[in-house]
């Protein structure tokens, strides 16, 4: 919850990967608070349907097709968001994936590059495109998606992804520290398994193991992450910066 009533009313959130899972849930939560939501995704129809539900919830929604790995796509989407709403107050970099599960010796160069392009370069592109606008306003919050996999190393299932999320985490620290004095915060969230289409690449055994290994005996829900995005973007605790927040139900692996 924000400290100031109606804190999000009329403020603008730019989400990548908004068509599904955590991005979609975050669009719903910000719409509930009366925010403008720019829903971007490579899934154009999915983004359009999210923007539509933002409208139904009383917020203003804008759907844009945007591949975060393509810098010119990102620049165009940011320009369109600025044209429509005049500012971007919050950036939520949710687009990301492990692409496919692989043990370390099975990772080929194509999988490695694809994983880093999407998770690391995509986050880099969006931050570099949005930060100048935040600096003009002397205010802004960036929330990046890291992962609890940065602690486990994704051993035997996704070390390519875990290491890419490690890079996202490190970039978050650098950006958060560089711009803290100019009103821009940057932090990341590091969940363990969350019940979204992301997990469609996991085998039944993997899913069972991650649920059984969790003291809460379940995966996280996307709306639990979305509420944390809202909290960290709010004025409730502006001291959260250049760090990651683990959301795991107590799971360590
Ligand atoms: N679900 C989990 O268990 C989990 C755990 C830790 C971290 N994460 C991270 O959370 C974030 C959100 O994951 P999710 O669970 O909502 O996944 P999801 O698969 O439900 O949604 C990901 C979205 O990203 C979009 N996307 C893929 N490539 C894109 C690209 N090049 N440009 C723009 N959009 C693109 C997809 O179309 C999809 O809508 C990801 O960064 C993921 O790595 C997820």
Describe this protein with a few key phrases.
single chain; 253 residues; alpha/beta; seven-stranded parallel beta sheet; 8 helices
Write the layout of secondary structure elements.
Layout lengths: L11 E5 L4 H12 L3 E6 L2 H13 L3 E6 L5 H15 L4 E4 L15 H29 L2 E6 L3 H4 L6 H21 L4 E8 L12 H9 L9 H12 L10 E4 L6
Parallel strand pairs: 1-2, 1-4, 2-3, 4-5, 5-6, 6-7
Helix pairs in contact: 1-2, 1-8, 3-4, 4-6
Nicotinamide-adenine-dinucleotide binds next to helix 1 and helix 4.
* Strand content bin: 15-25%
Number of strands: 7
Rounded average pLDDT: 97
What is the CATH architecture term?
3-Layer(aba) Sandwich
Radius of gyration equals 17 Å
Tell me the name of the CATH class. Answer: Alpha Beta
Number of helices: 8
What is the compact description of this entry?
By secondary structure, the chain is of the alpha/beta class. It has helices spanning 21-32, 44-56, 71-85, 109-137, 149-152, 159-179, 204-212, 222-233, and strands at residues 12-16, 36-41, 60-65, 90-93, 140-145, 184-191, 244-247.
Structure description:
The protein is α/β, with parallel strands linked by helices. It has a single domain, classed as NAD(P)-binding Rossmann-like Domain (Rossmann fold, 3-Layer(aba) Sandwich), CATH 3.40.50. The protein contains eight helices and seven strands. It has helices spanning about 20-30, 45-55, 70-85, 110-135, 150, 160-180, 205-210, 220-235, and strands at about 10-15, 35-40, 60-65, 90-95, 140-145, 185-190, 245. α1 packs across α8 (about 220-235). It starts with 11 loop residues before the first strand and ends in a 6-residue tail after the last strand. The model has no long low-confidence stretch (mean pLDDT about 95).
């Amino acid at each position: 919850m924000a400290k100031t009533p109606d804190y999000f009313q009329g403020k603008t959130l730019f989400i990548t990967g908004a068509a599904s899972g955590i991005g979609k849930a975050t669009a719903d939560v910000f719409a509930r608070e009366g925010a403008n939501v720019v829903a971007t995704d490579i899934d154009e129809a999915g983004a359009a349907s999210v923007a539509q539900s933002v409208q139904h919830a009383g917020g203003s929604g804008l759907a844009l097709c945007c591949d975060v790995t393509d810098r010119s796509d990102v620049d165009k989407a940011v320009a369109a968001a600025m044209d429509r709403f005049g500012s971007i107050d919050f950036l939520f970099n949710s687009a990301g994936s492990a692409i496919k599960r692989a043990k370390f010796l099975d990772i080929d160069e194509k999988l490695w590059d694809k994983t880093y392009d999407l998770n690391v370069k995509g986050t880099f592109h969006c931050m570099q495109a949005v930060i100048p606008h935040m600096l003009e306003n002397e205010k802004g919050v960036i929330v990046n998606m890291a992962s609890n996999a940065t602690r486990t190393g994704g051993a035997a299932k996704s070390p390519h992804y875990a290491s890419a999320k490690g890079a996202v985490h490190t970039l978050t620290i650098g950006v958060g520290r560089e711009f803290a004095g100019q009103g821009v915060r940057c932090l990341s969230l590091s969940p363990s398994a969350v019940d979204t289409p992301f997990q469609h690449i996991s085998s039944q055994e993997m899913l069972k193991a991650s649920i059984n290994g969790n003291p809460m005996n379940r995966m996280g829900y996307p709306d639990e992450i979305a509420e944390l995005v809202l909290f960290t973007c709010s004025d409730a605790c502006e001291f959260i910066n250049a760090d990651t927040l683990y959301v795991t139900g107590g799971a360590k692996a």
